[in-house]
Design brief:
The protein is an all-alpha fold. It has one domain. Helices cover 83% and strands 0% of the residues. The chain is built from three helices and no strands. Helix 1 packs antiparallel against helix 2. The longest helix is centred in the middle third of the chain and has 32 residues. The N and C termini lie far apart (46 Å). InterPro entries: DUF7530. Keywords: Membrane, Transmembrane, Transmembrane helix.
């Protein structure tokens, strides 16, 4: 849903080129949506890595070899 909102805002940018205040406001929202999407993707990736048995086995084997 956030990604769709960001794409919709991005599609509005050409119509706002003559209105700098609105262009900055919409640009800020686009950046905020991009940050939210990337942050959520990073958190989901970390949770998958923590939950996977392969990731924990590799970490334990490395610690045992020290």
């Amino acid at each position: 849903m956030n990604l769709g909102f960001g794409l919709l805002l991005f599609a509005m940018v050409p119509f706002l080129l003559d209105r700098p205040v609105l262009l900055v406001a919409v640009g800020g929202h686009i950046v905020a949506v991009a940050v939210a999407v990337v942050s959520l993707a990073a958190m989901a990736t970390l949770r998958v890595r923590e939950a996977s048995p392969e990731g924990s086995l590799g970490r334990d084997a490395t610690e045992r070899n020290r």
